[in-house]
Predict the structure.
Amino acid sequence: MNDINMSYTLILLALPFLMFLVLGLLGNKMKPLVAGVLGTLSLGVMAAVAYYTAYQYFFVVGKVGEVYQSLPVFNYEWLQFYGELKINLGIMLDPISALMLVVITTVSLMVHIYSLGYMKGERGFQRYYALLSLFTFAMLGLVVATNIFQMYIFWELVGVSSFALISFYYTKPSAVAASKKAFIVTRFADLFFLIGILIISYFAGTFDFATLTDPDAPFIGSAVGATFLGGTALSWALAFIFIGGAGKSAMMPFHIWLPDAMEGPTPASALIHAATMVVAGVFLVARLFPIYVGTTVLEIIGWVGAITAAYAAIVACAQTDIKRVLAFSTISQIAFMITSLGVSGYGGHDGLGYMASMFHLFTHAFFKALLFMGAGAVIHAVHSNEMKDMGGLRKYLPITHITFAVAVLAIAGIFPFSGFWSKDEIMAAAFHHNKAIFALLFFAACLTAFYMSRLYYRIFWYDNNKDYHHKPHEAGPTMTIPLIILAILAAFSGFVPFSKYITSDGKAFEAHIDMLVAGLSTLAAVGGIVVATLMYAKKKDAPNKFTQTFPRLYKWASDRFYFDEIWLFVTRKIIFDRISKPIAWFDRHIVDGFMDGLAYVTQAASDKIKGLQSGHIQQYIFVYLIGALSLVFIFIFFIAFLLS
């Protein structure tokens, strides 16, 4: 390894945190544009540092022999517990952290630039940019963490940032409710994450990833040897950790918070969905992948992802709010990544699923950010999220139309756009590992092409004679330039030879297109697009006929298969009514009653004896005399008892 000082990477954490403090504390004293430009320039510097860091890692210092190594750039001891168990704060570079530096800063920079136009004139403009800086800081701190506890700290900070952005329009009850929902659901999942951390650190004696991700680490034997309810301690720990990841990445049944998170500003949604919060769960499993391999937990992860991908794709087909369509699209695409990890082995071509998952995370970041920003441009033009208020917008928004079409083709998996390359690798990994999982992903891929084409046609084609009260117009350069840049990335990022840089064991391998799988995947995408074209390219009665033919299916899909109602039933009728209320009654009547009884007895006794402290000397002498005579009487009685 070349001896190069990379301490400059501290800028990646110091600068966004500094911007958060400056904009948060002093932002209201600045003009909004000044605050926005300051935040954007800081992100530009961070992006430049991130690109340089990734270049240094992949092409200069990261590879030793044929293997990319973990490179601890900075590691500061923060808290010491006992023995080797301590919490450090630092920066660790490896292939996936270097990748995430590029993804996060690129998308965040595009969001910052885009928001200069989209959020112009909004109340709280400075606060918005302060929160974007905090969000970026939290995610960067998460991906470069040297240990799992540092990751957990920044994991929670990512949550705090997202809740603040979701409820940015805090005067809207729906925004506040959405933020609360996200908070409660993810807190429940994160509790399991914390339990998993404590279990695995108990056996490992450390939080450091260097030990935790070593497949030959001594602690694995002891963690496998200890069992509970038929599972090893290692399996339980990894399962609990995955529950935390499932909550953050909105996997079933923790997916219910993400569609409502659309209440925040659309550019913030792009950041949450494309590059930060929801990919954290994928990153978490990838970070600990060496010890997930070979456990039954990894198989469970694959099934959870596949079922979630199919479910979310079905629901997306029945949504009418364009941001909700994209929300369920995100759930489905993240599920593809999770599934890909679940069907992966370790090393070489066996690790195809791991590489494909990270590859799809990379490409998805660009086309999903583009989709959200394109949706934002549409909303900005027509002042509505509903498809019924759109149609024929290709004439008014030519740049948005073309860039949005690129994103749709990418997510649908059409050659040669980026989604084709990454999704094909996922499908190939699933096909060779588990045909049933492959079938679910194939079904989801068909629906993805359909509902995204439906969205595209409903916005830009469909009703060509629609009469808009205010003529829609293309957004300004601050909004269209990010769209163009992201469209270029969405079109060509799939040509990156990913298997040379990101693999499960750090060793490069040659990835090849599986022609059978690629043909089936392309057939699924083309089929979905053709059906959507026939139904939605022009205003026809076909959609209404379908909903009338399958009214119950459409109703269930439109209502998300009533998962929200199930959660409400479980929380209100079972947890609150059957568990919380009895506990509250016991606490109020038994615990509080016992303590109140002690207080009453103490008070009553004090009332009875407080007269002894009267201050009258005569009374004290009288009591003393009675006491002395009583002692004499007891003594005499005791002597008489002994003599008898």
